[in-house]
Amino acid sequence: MANTSWKNFFLSLIDYKTEKYVIAKNKKVGVLFRVFQLSVLAYIIGWVFLTKKGYQERDDAIQSSVITKLKGVALTNATDSGVHLWGAEDYVIPPQGERVFFIITNFIETPNQRLGYCAESTRVLDGHCRQNEDCTEGEAVISGNGIKSGRCLNSTGTCEIYGWCPIEKRHKPKEAILRKAENFTVFIKNFIRFPKFQFSKSNILETNDDMYLKKCRYNETQHPYCPIFRLGDLVHWAGHSFQDMALLGGSIGVLIQWKCDLDKDYSKCNPQYSFTRLDVKSNNSITSGYNFRYARYYKDGAGQTYRTLFKVYGIRIDIMVTGEAGKFNIIPTIVNIGSGLALMGAGVFFCDMILLYLMEKSTFYRESKFETTKYESARWKHKSRELKPLPEDGTPNRQDVWKGKFIDLSRNNSEVSS
Amino acid sequence: MANTSWKNFFLSLIDYKTEKYVIAKNKKVGVLFRVFQLSVLAYIIGWVFLTKKGYQERDDAIQSSVITKLKGVALTNATDSGVHLWGAEDYVIPPQGERVFFIITNFIETPNQRLGYCAESTRVLDGHCRQNEDCTEGEAVISGNGIKSGRCLNSTGTCEIYGWCPIEKRHKPKEAILRKAENFTVFIKNFIRFPKFQFSKSNILETNDDMYLKKCRYNETQHPYCPIFRLGDLVHWAGHSFQDMALLGGSIGVLIQWKCDLDKDYSKCNPQYSFTRLDVKSNNSITSGYNFRYARYYKDGAGQTYRTLFKVYGIRIDIMVTGEAGKFNIIPTIVNIGSGLALMGAGVFFCDMILLYLMEKSTFYRESKFETTKYESARWKHKSRELKPLPEDGTPNRQDVWKGKFIDLSRNNSEVSS
Amino acid sequence: MANTSWKNFFLSLIDYKTEKYVIAKNKKVGVLFRVFQLSVLAYIIGWVFLTKKGYQERDDAIQSSVITKLKGVALTNATDSGVHLWGAEDYVIPPQGERVFFIITNFIETPNQRLGYCAESTRVLDGHCRQNEDCTEGEAVISGNGIKSGRCLNSTGTCEIYGWCPIEKRHKPKEAILRKAENFTVFIKNFIRFPKFQFSKSNILETNDDMYLKKCRYNETQHPYCPIFRLGDLVHWAGHSFQDMALLGGSIGVLIQWKCDLDKDYSKCNPQYSFTRLDVKSNNSITSGYNFRYARYYKDGAGQTYRTLFKVYGIRIDIMVTGEAGKFNIIPTIVNIGSGLALMGAGVFFCDMILLYLMEKSTFYRESKFETTKYESARWKHKSRELKPLPEDGTPNRQDVWKGKFIDLSRNNSEVSS
User: Fold this and answer.
1) Distance (Å, whole) CA C180 – CA C170
2) Residue A203, Cβ neighbours under 10 Å: how many?
3) Is the four-CA dihedral B360, B364, B366, B368 of positive or negative sign?
4) How much is the average pLDDT of C79-105?
5) 3-state secondary structure chain A
6) B311 contacts: CB under 8 Å, gap ≥ 6
7) Interatomic CA distance for residues C135 and C377, integer angstroms
């Protein structure tokens, strides 16, 4: 007994159950449904797979390493500082060729500063005073150049301070001293790696020609793989004028984008360069421009320290590397196919709604589609496929169950009971 | 013929096939199923779409550029180094306003170092010796200050080394010399861009008031868009004391988070600042604190090089910008809807299980739901809708096929054969 | 009336509708379908959930902070520069322990440069000349050392320039002066944070043993959590020879990978270190190697500036931290389950195709599965379940509708009309 029931159970497991369908010969809804199916198919193939590459696994956590090198010399002759020849070791800060670097385009040099007492600058608000009491001894001047000594100097109307004297002249420069920096060139070496796919590449043209990189300049159409940029061009492509930016400084972003389809050839994965100005250009001196100070320290014969203070304005270049790689992977393919199939289900739902409730013959279709089964008739006992024997009929009957209707087809008694 | 069959094929293509359903008038399972459907709907709408914004495409590969500027001066008077006025050009390393910068809060200055022979520090383990043989000539002292000369000096119990003499005194500082750095302020300019959506923004309040940024300080409730922070506040908000950290140094992270819903207004996308201590605070001198050394080189009148060695302790500020933007996109919407619909299918599966196997009338429902078709009767030949003519009956019959049962309804012979 | 219809509507809402299935007792297709279902289940459980951890939400926007510290001294004695003892304050650029740092392994020192007139180097192409007219006065030498004065010097065949003289000798170095840098050690402190999960960790072994970190060296099997690396080992693990790289410099990437399953214990989330050479090794001097220049400025007794120019070659170490964390989340679990379920639907589709069109009894199964309903008979009026009374028959009939076939089972007239 138990063996038979287990055997039946396993046999029933490998029966193939398929859903029963009603063919409603309604051309309108049929065409609508086919149109819907074709749209879903077109959407899946055209948009999800071809355009958005939905069959690919994506990696956007790009690892990037950037090395830069500037070339160019310029001679300056400023009133305060005299003649100076600027090379990359002077105007690039920091000098070691980093991803973010600053090029001096303008500066205010204050040489021979020594610690001592002098008047605070008139341009510093907190330094203004009318009498000695306005200058609290030992208090640092807010946004100032030193510590108040306690005396108010009438000659300038500012506090006397202890600091590096002579203090820096706080005037806005009128022209960019190192304006020739426009012609300097920067060589950007970029090495990227997509960790998910173990894919590495660099942006330098793989060429046997040694001289190519010595002479070429980046050009979007003719030399797209020569990452040597003239600074003036960089700023120009960002939509600004180098000379304007050089006066008070600014910030330029060089965006290197790697959009790679790794199902294609290695040589097809190449960077796109775009340039944008990062700082907000405004008349507000707090927010616009870019400057900072540094000092060079010296000792004189007596061992006393003195220094040269530099307030440098310039253009900061920020190289930002982004990238996204895609490679065929079975999982996103299946997820997207699965979603598309589920979407077909939505189409069935909507077409059913139209067929069953909105068309003129909807009641008919509803009755075709739905069959009611109700376990309520007291007339017959439901005992797995047995029919209550009818009195007159001696011939064996078979009870056929379909959708809750039982046809009791004995010879004499043809009744349909529900 | 062929035309007709093609025509029939195309006509059959646009027939609308809909699944046949059995209505089981079982309120319990019906209510259970509706409850399940409502839960799935509530989950999709409430959680996936409203809370997790599942209708949006997300971009978390934020591009960020940070420019910092510190302000503040402090006067120090140390035994070894004398009086020194510290400005931003002195205490910020590097000075060019980078994303990661270091502020000196304490230092050990060793001036006038010249190359020569002197005793290694007693605090260096590898420098200890008892006799000359312990000091191998030409060998560098591990974690030391120079190269062993081969002599062991009895006065100190350490090897004589060739290096920059006098060597640095390796004592742990007792107080932070530049403790007034607590009052310095840092102005953090952050420019971000979400490349997927071509969306850019900066964290500076767009205001016409020039004086606002000169005077304001960051305050989470009153001035959330003034990114000027007092250093002491920064450390305090990270949960630590500035003076404690200033002694041996440490590392603070400033996290700027941009969570932007780009379906909303541009002005709603604003950064959130949070502060955390990055280094592990412990008594282990190897891992705690933050210090490094640098040197300033000078040449005397004879052209001989001498230097001042600085061992600086301080607080390193690491500005980490993260962000995530979301914008409505049809694909994630559809993927999530699709998954929800597939989930409905799971509900059908479970309710069917309950109806067909767990309820008391389950056998009845099973028989209503499943119809068996079995191609095994030898009695009739299956030839597309034709019935084998029965001997007696001359009237034309129609063979009706339904689920494998054939009703042969000739006048005399009413038989149901399966 | 209205109440009744609303009541009926609500009652109909909680009827449970289940699809009708045809059981095709076809073992072959049944087994095929079960095999397909098992494969989909195995794929979902084995691949999507266990291998790819599809039940987890992922965060790959790792926040990282790196602090480095180098130790080691070396003595050099070069012809031009004399004896020099190099400590970390000298050979690490920048000195503050950043994520990207450069170690000097070779250098060309040009001391005592003063502004003046001298001959351009013969190795600079643009400096070559035959007569004065080749040297345009005031023009900067491309890739050169100064500004052309207008004179062509016969002794060298190059233009006379105004620049820092004596100019640097542009010879390729033959051996790495600071080759002992191979024994220097770098201590890499890495702090990471996964913002989505608010999870933080550092890569330093949490130990009470102070002496452990003073003495250990990184070893992949024995000391995996001691992030102190000997430079020579770093380069060796990257697959290159330190001495080869030290000659002209190069670039090494240290990849720190954090792959964390946050459903597991905190102590299981640990970094993996791997090492790779970043620059392309080639004979091309433009692209290979790594070097830059910086200068130290001095003033003599007369206040005249002179400088020492350093062209340094070395190894740049780029510490790149990547990571990915996963933690159980209900949404990706459901999305992946949903996709799997939809995939089952594909299985049904294919098995149906086989059953209905490819097997030998396919016509039979097609007719079992699909029922046609056609609203075209003029014989009877469709009025919700009423039969047109036939003339002779006085007994009440019931019109049974199934799949568009109507059995009019009056006693006398057994007709099947479609």
Assistant:
1) 24
2) 20
3) negative
4) 90
5) CHHHHHHHHHHHHCCEEEECEEEECCHHHHHHHHHHHHHHHHHHHHHHHHHCCCCEEEECCCEEEEEEEEECCEEEEECCCEEEEECHHHHEECCCCCCEEEEEEEEEEEEEEEEEEEECCCCCHHHECCCHHHCCCCCECCCCCEEEEEEEECCCCEEEEEEEECCCCCCCCCCCCCHHHHHCEEEEEEEEEEHHHCEEEECCCCCCCHHHHHHCCCECCCECCCCEEEHHHHHHHCCCCHHHHHHHCEEEEEEEEEEEECCCCHHHCCEEEEEEECCCCCCCCCCCCCEEEEEEEEECCCCCEEEEEEEEEEEEEEEEEEEEEEEECHHHHHHHHHHHHHHHHHHHHHHHHHHHHHCCCHHHHHHHHEEEECCCCCCCCCECCECCCCCCCCCCCCCEEECCEEEEECCCCEEEEC
6) B107, B108, B110, B168, B291, B292, B293
7) 105
- DSSP3 helix / strand / coil % (chain C, rounded to 5): 30, 40, 35
C183 is in an annotated binding site: no
Write out the two tokens for B84: 């020194």
Which positions ≥6 away from C397 have C-beta within 8 Å? C387, C389, C390, C408, C409, C410
Among the ranges given (A340-344, A375-379, C323-327), the one the predictor scored with the smallest mean pLDDT: A375-379
Q: Which residues contact B227 (CB under 8 A, 6 or more apart)?
A: B187, B188, B189, B190, B203, B204, B218, B273
Give the neighbours of chain A: at least 3 Cβ pairs within 8 Å. B, C
Mean pLDDT of chain A: 80
> Is residue A37 very low, low, confident or very high in pLDDT (cuts 50, 70, 90)?
confident
pLDDT of residue B417: 34
Q: Which residues contact residue A10 at a Cβ distance below 8 angstroms, ignoring those fewer than 6 apart?
A: none
3-state secondary structure of C230: strand
Choose among B183, B191, B339: nearest Cβ to A339: B339
The pair of three-digit structure tokens given for residue B131, joined into one six-digit string: 């006799």
Which two three-digit tokens encode residue B178?
């530049």
Q: Which residues of A touch C359 (CB under 8 A)?
A: none
Give chain A's largest Cα–Cα span.
139
ipTM of the complex: 0.76
Q: What pLDDT, in 10s, does the model give residues B335-366?
A: 777 777 767 776 777 777 777 777 777 777 77
Burial of B265 (0-12, 13-18, 19+ CB in 10 A): exposed
CB contact under 8 A, C21 and B369: yes
Question: Which chain C residues are closer than 8 Å to A364 by Cβ?
Answer: 373, 375, 382
- Among the partner residues B21, B89, B195, nearest to A370 by beta-carbon distance: B21
- B282 part of contact set with chain C, CB < 8 Å: no
Q: Is the pLDDT of residue B384 over 50?
A: no
> Rounded to whole angstroms, how far apart are CA atoms B402 and A407?
13
CA distance B351 to B344: 11
pLDDT of residue C302: 86
For the CA atoms of A175, A178, A182, A185, what is the dihedral angle to 10 degrees? Answer: -160
Percent of chain C at pLDDT > 70 equals: 84
Closest by CA to A26, choosing from A365, A370, A347, is: A365
Which residue, A71, A318, A65, A317, is CA-closest to A187? A71
3-state secondary structure of C378: coil
Name the residue with higher pLDDT: C366 or A282: C366
Model confidence, pTM: 0.79
Cβ atoms of C115 and C163 closer than 8 Å: yes
